[in-house]
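haha ok so turns out i had the wrong file open the whole time. this is the CORRECT one, sorry everyone. sequence first:
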Amino acid sequence: MTPRKKAAAHSKLFILDTNVLLHDPTSLFRFEEHDICLPMFVLEELDNKKKGMTEVARNARQASRFLDEIVNDAPRNIEEGIALKSDAHKNCTGRLYLQTSFVKHELPQNLELGKADNAILGVIIGLQQQQPERAVILVSKDINMRIKARALGLDAQDYFNDKVLEDTDLLYGGVLQLPVDFWETHGRDMESWLRDGHTYYRIHGPLCGAFFINQFVYKEDDTPFYARVLEQDENSAVLRTLTDYTHSKNNVWGIVARNREQNFVLNLLMDPEIDFVTLLGQAGTGKTLLTLAAGLMQTLESKRYTEIIITRVTVPVGEDIGFLPGTEEEKMTPWMGALDDNLDVLNKTDEEAGDWGKAATRDLIRSRIKIKSLNFMRGRTFLNKFIIIDESQNLTPKQMKTLITRAGPGTKVVCMGNIAQIDTPYLTEGSSGLTYVVDRFKGWEHGGHITLMRGERSRLADHAGEVL
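then structure:
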């Protein structure tokens, strides 16, 4: 294996660690004009990981299939490298090199021999000595592997291609505060009309190009203004005023919005034209309570949906407690403590029902709520369902796609989570499936997003969220 020296002038050589392929099998085609190299130990580890039904095993098998397709098209002299460019990957002009010979290099004595990570580092040192004029870079999701590489004077990087955003502060929030002089700069030639209890405004001005469809805009001064963007182009936009869910006459299953963002959330959840809602926010901002209240109202009162389906990723925060007994629903019950907590709150809103009435209501509610495991979602189609995906910050973009594409006609999907509390290994705030869908769905006419800012759980919870 001696990657082409003529390529040294314009392309780098990236050595991929196994965890990069297990995290994203398509990483083989993500390095554009640069070459990639797979040491023999990486192929061995890939082979060891391919058994089972876990996401890691599936990714290992997919990476092996990609490698099989690439190597099948290889010339007889595999040491010259295999072109990665194909009809499906036209931007990928680099070459793939497989380790075909033993790279003999003495590792530092303090590195344990026979360990896969150290063997990969030995290959990188050998390649660097063979091609001193070319950048040879390790790509790994393993922080310790990168630290060891840098300690040996080697270049090492994280795999960034799966990140939607480098800085999550730039993530779309779904809300925009209008400037003080908004009406002066945008009110000229304004049209307004009433329809179905809402006021519509067609405005013209420089801010219109920065709006997104279904973004909420507000202005809080002597005459507060809250609206949602229904249409927009570079020079004009149509805004529609909101239903005021902070007023008790518009309560949703006994729940009223306690702040501005909660009012925006209920406007999205109760709108039949919105099929997909994403909610971000720290603990105690009301994501689950508002979503359950809206789901129950539209399932039991207006009969818009036939039932509520709740699912979440079963990633433990501490040590795993082992296998759980019972049916699928019984196994999921310990993960659904938040559901029971919120049902208690929703059940208390009916003061006149008495203990028997509350028990009957609770049984009726539970009969319309189904708890499903993520593991059995593939291949299903849900018709006229209200689907809640809780703790969705722990989903990968691929898992998120699998879940959202289950939605059939008349189904609404609500994804919620807190990207500051990710428990899945190798996922970060920038590469979480929740961040991915928020960024990809912004501006879609049947989707909406809100980042909730204010906690409403208790003064203790709010203070803990700030100082801990």
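The first strand starts at residue 13 and ends at 16.
again sry for the mixup
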